[in-house]
Amino acid sequence: MSTNGLQAAVTKMQDAGVGAAAIANFKRFYHLLEQGTSGYILESEISPLPDLPHLDTNAAPTADDLRALDQTAVIKLNGGLGTSMGLQAAKSLLPVRDGLAFLDIIARQILATRKATGARLPLIFMNSFRTADDTEKVLAKYPELRVEGLPDSFLQNREPKLSADTLAPIEWPADPELEWCPPGHGDLYPALFDAGIIRDLLAQGYRYAFVSNADNLGATPNALMAGWFARSGAPYAAEMSRKTPADVKGGQLVVRNHDGRLVQRETAQTHPDDMAISLDATKHKYFHTNNLWFNLEALQAELERTGGVLELPLIRNEKTVDPTDPASPAVVQIESAMGAAVRVFPGATAIEVARERFLPVKTTDDLLLLRSDIYELTDDYRLHKVSEPPVVKLSKPYKTITGFEQRFPYGPPRLRDAQSFTVDGDYTFEGDTTATGAAYLPAGTGIIPAGTVIHG
Fold first, then answer.
1. Burial of 235 (C-beta count, 10 Å sphere; 0-12/13-18/19+)
2. Contact 368, 408 (CB under 8 A)
3. What is the set of active-site residues?
């Protein structure tokens, strides 16, 4: 049954115009899925990451740093729709500060960095089929971003969702778009290879690529980082940060015991029996920011050697075909993680960076912080942290953007004097409210009047 399933899936991908390298990656993962590969990286097989060197990215850059930055391209992963926040369009269209969306701020960060450093800094987005058109409309406001001879975007691939029972492509006539899923951000590699992006960058004299998520406005291009990576001689590097109370989950680098090689372990690759220790910040001190640096020559050589099929570990993701309907048929999504390529490159390394280089928005809790007085948007469009961010926990009515906006019509409360901000009830906030200490609102409903100070 599964052999027929694989052929049906491949035919479906070919008919949809999916690239050859992406299909080859899918075949490899499908065979691993057939073999029952769990993808787990067991705690008994690894050791925690040792203390890493720390890089101060606020120091004055040297001429060598600036030269390295001029040889760097910036790639942003921009395929997400923000469905967990109730969005049906690109998350990067969401306003963050001063009426500017993620895309606006990213574009302005690049332009400000070019002006300050003289670096060429091409900006290239990896879009999905559902974010490409909207992204192009926003970027049309910034024609000066374009770099002659280079595209400003390329497409992430897609693959069929598989029936959990048969591993055949699922059919869902009610909404055929739901028959498809993204392959995880590990798809960066076959997508780059099929689009010829690395070849084009090398032909124009670029040597390095800095890759990050579009929803992480802390991941700005930085001459100090570029210079450090160039001097390291490494083919690949990951930016790691010390865990805070807000960072217990997510990917982490660990050391594989049998060969000492760095590998990435995602939450989905952590055995349930190992989950508690993997979240223990006293043992696993770092989390992965998903900010990556590549030597383009090393990356292109490996992709050419493998035909675009890097040997990344399988992530088996079990869902329902309609994610909004738990009664719809169970499916398996084949995924991989971009950061898992650390295991592919001998000599890959990592460095500790400040938490300010990791400011993602995965939930409305994160969005509340970025819109609050904890951060200020500087003249060069960096988010400057004014005080330590509190841990924010909002209840279910705030989890969608619609619910969130309705309940904070005048913006977030002031949070600079808060250690935490927890809302268990359903309240609408008038303007000029302040949270202090362990600010807490219990279960219940109502209006928080202007001038209210919320405390423990």
1. buried
2. yes
3. 362
